[in-house]
Amino acid sequence: MKLSQGVKMAWHSVSSQKMRTLLTVLGIMIGIASVTIMVAIGNGTAEQVKSQMQGLGTNMLTANVVGRGSVTSITQADAKTLTDIDGVKEYAPVISGNVTAKYKTTTYSASVQATTASFADVRDYKVAQGRFIKDIDGAFSQKVAVIGSEVATELNISNPVGQKIGLNGSSYKIIGVLESKGSTTNGSSDNVVIIPVETARVALKTDAIRTIYVQVESSDKVDFVQKMLEFNLQTFFRNDEDAYTVFNQADLLKTITEVSTSMSTMLTYVAAISLLVGGIGIMNMMLTSVSERTKEIGIRKSLGAKQRDILFQFLVEAAMIGGLGGLIGVIVGASGSSFAGKLMDSPASPSVDIMVLALLFSMGVGVLFGFLPARRASRLNPVDALRQ
């Protein structure tokens, strides 16, 4: 039997029992749709996390100081000594805090990063207007500020550069506006005001440095620099490992990826159960179809149809039912990915490769679960079949 003839006969059989076919493919459709949506959300989330991690800066380590006894922070000189490691490209000590930013009569709660000129390169910030802070600004304790795009918008400053804003009551001159970076795992990167670290006491009422961002020259030196930085901190705090933490953003990305993979694996098992149910449904439908078409099989065999022709006919029919379920599932999954992404507030990126693989897999499920009924049909005795 030719494939085209088998497809025509299978389509005629499937289309003549529309409701039964629809109910049969439901399990396959749900399984394939679930896989498609799940993979789309997984891919979208992975891309978003990678983008956010890149937005934090490349090859970056973050050292957070908790302190030991009376020593709860470090100085700029300490930061320079601690990061004097082979492989360190740049470092940026940071004093963080929240302030009330005020422009004319408008106020807004903003995050302040008091730091040095190297902060822009270490954290991958770019200036859209004006300039970034310079070392000379810090040397002369200039009360200047670079603001994020969100701060400029919320304070309704149309031409920010050159304007003055109040930070907790202290007046700072705006010298630049940062390009928008969106949100990262640490929150919005645009709700920020950057000032020289030397003026932190004015705006934040403290000069205690508790964070150092370290940029490593290349990814293959990150582990070495991290170990040396931890060693230096351990020596500084006299072997008190609770006085500091060193965070590697690559480790976070790895952890998030592992969690995402675990969730995807778990949901894949759930989808596999749906496919199993769908496969059993196909088997039941095909067994019923064989029983109903016993006379047809007997006539075909009496007219010369061979056992392999009958087997092929029913296998094509089973594959078509599985394929229809897979096709509908892929369509529902692709269209439902964006909806599910919005519902879960997560990006969704459907994978064409996965959709094609899911479609082929659904046809394979049809063939697998349709083999027993097809084999049973092909072994019917034509005389007994005609009697029935």
Question: What this model shows, in words?
Answer:
The protein has 388 residues and is α+β, with helices and mostly antiparallel strands. The protein contains 13 helices and twelve strands. It has a six-stranded mixed barrel with strand order 2-3-10-5-7-6. Strands 8-9 form a two-stranded antiparallel sheet. β2 (88-103) and β3 (106-115) form a beta hairpin. It is elongated. The protein starts with a helix and ends with a helix. The model has no long low-confidence stretch (mean pLDDT 83).
Descriptive terms for the model:
388 residues; six-stranded mixed barrel; two-stranded antiparallel sheet; 56% helix
Strand content: 15-25%
Secondary-structure element string: HHEHEEHEHEHEEEEEHEHEHHHHH
Rg, Cα atoms, Å: 33 Å
Strand order of the largest sheet: 2-3-10-5-7-6
Summarize the structure.
This protein is an alpha+beta fold and about 400 residues long. The protein is about 55% helix and about 20% strand. It is built from 13 helices and twelve strands.
Question: What is this structure's SSE topology?
Answer:
Elements: H1 3-15, H2 18-55, E1 60-65, H3 76-82, E2 88-103, E3 106-115, H4 119-122, E4 127-130, H5 135-139, E5 144-147, H6 149-154, E6 164-167, E7 170-178, E8 183-184, E9 187-188, E10 192-196, H7 200-204, E11 211-216, H8 222-236, E12 244-248, H9 249-292, H10 294-302, H11 307-343, H12 352-378, H13 382-387
Helix pairs in contact: 1-11, 2-9, 2-11, 2-12, 9-11, 9-12, 11-12
